[in-house]
Amino acid sequence: MKLAIIFPPLPFGWTPVAPPSLEYIAALTRRVDPDIEIALISAGADPDAVERLECDLAAISILTPTAVGGYKIAEKLRARGIKIVFGNMHASAMPEEAKQHGDAVVIGEAESVWPAVLRDFRAGRLKPFYRGDQISLDDLPTPLYGMLKGKRKHQFRIVNTSRGCPYNCTFCSVKPFYGPRIRFRPIDHVVRDVAAIPEKMYINGDENIWWTGKAERAIDLFTALKGSGKRWMGFGSLGPVLSPVGSRMLNAARESGLLSLWVGWESLTADGLKAYSASGKIGVDRERAVKTLRDHGIDVSLFYMLGSRHDSMEDFKRSVEIADRLGVSMHPSLTVPYPGTKLREQYDAYLYKDLGWEYYNGAYALFEHPEPDMTPEVREERFFETALELLSLGRVLRHMKNVPLRSFPHAHILSLMSQLPVRHGMKIAYEKWKAERKLVAEKRRKI
Ligand code: B12
Ligand code: SF4
Fold first, then answer.
1. Which of 93, 212, 325, 355 places its Cα 20 to 30 Å from the Cα of 437?
2. CATH class of 157-432
3. Ligand 1 centre and the CA of 63: distance in Å?
């Protein structure tokens, strides 16, 4: 039997980060049956691979912005008699929709049901839906790192050390999928997986690399990773940085190779955080936390949203001021009400429902704003201008001066690598937006 595992192209094209689900589901498959022949396709890195593909079953991993691309791939393969199973966050939030484009849908985590999917496929009786449990993480396999080959090489692999999150941010897709309880992997398994990564740098793909009240686990993990000889980056919240054990934790993190922390800044105002119910972030002295991170030799990038129903035009300008004041790189997106989230329920009456999932990429205004001046076109144009202003060459280079010297040259190279390709992608997206703005406006008028 030949299985292909496919990740459709991401909205802004190729990224240096390998789609983590490919090499991971390959490892789950090997565990079930080492004789299954596996092909991995990251369609953004290898656009023609689907055309050449020969297989019996295609497992397609879809996020919301890649769902339409995934459905198109499925259509081509089905025309050649290949069976399709969908999985990942979009398929889990919209299983009935995904089923219309495939033969089976895995809802939730794959581990508990993947053996049944493969067995049923072989027996010629795939079920329409499989519901995966939120499993204990005591026995996850090491992804088959390095198995993904393609025309364009991905340079970073992901390591996951936990799943789940106790907070309730209304815009979040992760919590509805992975659940409210933090589940940790055994530290020795994480060390084993890091050792298996062929590259010298990797990404921690957890929702959060450290949690309030669980700093000791983070310190144990970082201490165990010290000997890996590899450098890494990951997503982390600011609350634990200012806790009494914060400094010890940051030193351990840096010594384990942490170069750069990606922070979900989410909103520029306290009221915005409240509107999103971002309880883990409310009341934290965020600017002091950023400074503390940098004082410990860790670079910081902030990710945040603009154009929500509670945001104002002022926020666009304010974010550039914050970037300059704090000397950090900032990455905006327009707010996206992903299916399955609380925010989508809250915004339901205001959604432009004729804009398909391909517009759910953070660059389009997907709902009406109560402020008449904040038309969708104004929000989108200001978004592109702000993103490109934040990524101007002058600012990217000025930011170099603020990247902690203790992490020279790796953090400096990384900072360039994580901004220059985004700048390139953003310019292309802006031109595409200009070319399509009339068509998109038409679709919105249908509301
Ligand atoms: C690492 C990461 C990235 C990396 C790598 C992305 C890539 N190349 O795939 C980077 C930083 C590049 C990235 C970018 C984006 N990302 Co991202 N990313 C993540 C992150 C933090 C971790 C993913 C991870 O490590 N997964 C580990 C693997 C093993 O788990 P998994 O994929 O969930 O797989 C499990 C199940 O889903 C299932 N499964 C998965 N696929 C399949 C397929 C089949 C057939 C089956 C049966 C099962 C199955 O089985 C696995 C085991 O249970 C997640 C958040 C999170 N914590 O999940 C966001 C996340 C996936 N990203 C998200 C988004 C939207 C993006 C962007 C597309 C944002 C944008 N601007 O539009 C960008 C793309 C930018 C671009 N250049 O185009 C969203 C998706 C939301 C949604 N509803 O679709 C998430 C959930 C973050 C969020 N805040 O909501 N991302
Ligand atoms: S802190 Fe908020 S955004 Fe982050 S994973 Fe938890 S619920 Fe989602």
1. 93
2. alpha beta
3. 7
Residue 421, pLDDT score: 84
Do the Cβ atoms of 268 and 318 come closer than 8 Å?
yes
| Sign for the pseudo-dihedral over CA of 322, 323, 328, 329 | positive
| Fold held by 2-131 | Rossmann fold (3.40.50)
Cβ-based burial of 280 (10 A; exposed 0-12, middle 13-18, buried ≥19): buried
Report whether residue 336 contacts ligand 1, using a CB cutoff of 6 Å.
no
Amino acid letter at 102?
Answer: G
Q: Give the residue range(s) of CATH 3.20.20.70 domains in the chain.
A: 157-432
- ∠ CA 265-399-289 to the nearest 5 degrees? 35
Nearest CA to ligand 1 atom 11: 17
**Is the CB of 140 within 6 Å of ligand 1?**
no
Say if residues 320 and 309 touch (Cβ distance below 8 Å): no
- 167 C-beta closer than 6 A to ligand 2: yes
CA of 64 to the centre of ligand 2 (A): 17
Report the pLDDT value the prediction gives residue 109, as an integer from 0 to 100.
98
Mean predicted confidence (pLDDT) in 333-347: 98
pLDDT in tens, 398-408: 888 889 888 89
Delimit the CATH 3.40.50.280 region(s) of the chain. 2-131
Here the tokens at position 373 are 């001046």
Query: How much is the mean pLDDT over the chain?
Result: 95
CB of 135 sitting under 6 A from ligand 1: no
| Neighbouring C-alpha atoms within 13 Å toward the C-beta of 183 | 15
Q: Is the model's pLDDT at 327 over the cut of 80? A: yes
pLDDT at 446 over 70: no
Distance, CA of 18 to CA of 157 (rounded, Å) = 6
Residue 266 CB less than 6 A away from ligand 2? no
Give the pLDDT confidence score for residue 18 in this predicted structure.
Answer: 95
Report how far residue 170's alpha carbon sits from residue 330's, in angstroms, rounded to the nearest whole number.
21
Give dist(CA 334, CA 352) in Å, integer.
Answer: 14
pTM exceeds 0.85, yes or no: yes
17-48 per-position pLDDT tens digit? 999 999 999 999 999 999 999 999 999 999 89
